[in-house]
User: Which sequence fits this backbone?
């Protein structure tokens, strides 16, 4: 499978969703409903089904975590530093910039792309990274933003716990890991239902992402959005690639998954966080759109670097 053959169907579905929304074939209500279905049911089912699949084996390699989150630290730090040098951006805004430049779109693009590229060999490291990625990234961003408001550590922990334990992805990861640790597998009707839901995740996620892009505008702070997109699509994966392939030692599939995970565009969670705290929404929305459009080319380059060309 060449990189082009892998990437065209994925971003082709994003383009179809975007065109359908622009022409009115899909309304905003349908787009929102499809996104909610993917986030609340389809992807959680895919996660549980994959983690409980017989024969899914892997090791927890600390070098894997250090490589990925080392790259996160580089992109986040640079974005925050650049933001603080811009007029009118406070500490909360700088945190949002850093979060956007290092928060990958894992659910809508990352999962379909990585599973296509690495198959079973990449499933275990992918979902292990997902299990840590969500709470660690959201936790760090929430703590930093709340610190600007002077809230106590107890209040920040309580708020973070409420966010995580209402998140279907986090709950699915916890359920799948618990079933896996206990040796309980799915069979019969439960397996059929989980597989049926999980089988819709990839296509629905990509269509929902494309349809959702219609509401974003790239003209808002184009230089700032281009800076965030460049840090996300170039600096973040480059730092992870250097650490995974040239500093630490790990199985090749793990290094590839970490790098490809980092190549994903700015995640929707960055916009949700910006909207929640009412800061830098326009910049982050523009970054989501711009990075998603540019990712069709940059992901293709990274797939070729990783040996899928």
Assistant:
């Amino acid at each position: 499978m060449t990189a082009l053959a892998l990437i065209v169907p994925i971003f082709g579905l994003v383009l179809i969703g975007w065109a359908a929304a622009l022409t009115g074939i899909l309304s905003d209500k349908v787009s929102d409903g499809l996104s909610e279905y993917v986030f609340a049911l389809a992807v959680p089912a895919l996660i549980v089904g994959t983690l409980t699949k017989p024969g899914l084996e892997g090791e927890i390699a600390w070098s894997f975590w250090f490589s990925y989150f080392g790259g996160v630290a580089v992109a986040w730090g640079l974005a925050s530093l650049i933001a603080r040098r811009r007029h009118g951006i406070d500490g909360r805004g700088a945190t949002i910039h850093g979060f956007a430049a290092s928060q990958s779109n894992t659910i809508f693009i990352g999962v379909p792309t990585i599973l296509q590229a690495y198959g079973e060999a990449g499933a275990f490291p992918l979902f292990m990274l997902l299990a840590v990625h969500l709470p660690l990234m959201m936790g760090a961003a929430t703590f930093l933003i709340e610190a600007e408001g002077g809230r106590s550590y107890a209040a920040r922990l309580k708020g973070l716990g409420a966010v995580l334990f209402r998140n279907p992805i986090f709950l699915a990861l916890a359920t799948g890991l618990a079933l896996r640790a206990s040796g309980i597998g799915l069979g019969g009707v439960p397996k059929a239902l989980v597989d049926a839901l999980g089988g819709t995740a990839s296509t629905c996620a990509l269509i929902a992402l494309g349809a959702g892009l219609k509401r974003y505008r790239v003209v808002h702070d184009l230089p700032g959005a281009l800076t965030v997109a460049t840090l996300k699509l170039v600096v973040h994966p480059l730092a992870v690639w250097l650490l995974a392939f040239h500093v630490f030692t790990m199985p090749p599939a793990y290094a590839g998954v970490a790098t490809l995970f980092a190549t994903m565009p700015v995640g929707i969670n960055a916009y949700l966080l910006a909207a929640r705290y009412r800061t830098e929404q326009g910049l982050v929305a523009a970054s989501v759109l711009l990075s998603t459009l540019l990712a069709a080319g940059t992901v293709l380059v990274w797939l070729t670097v990783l040996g899928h060309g």
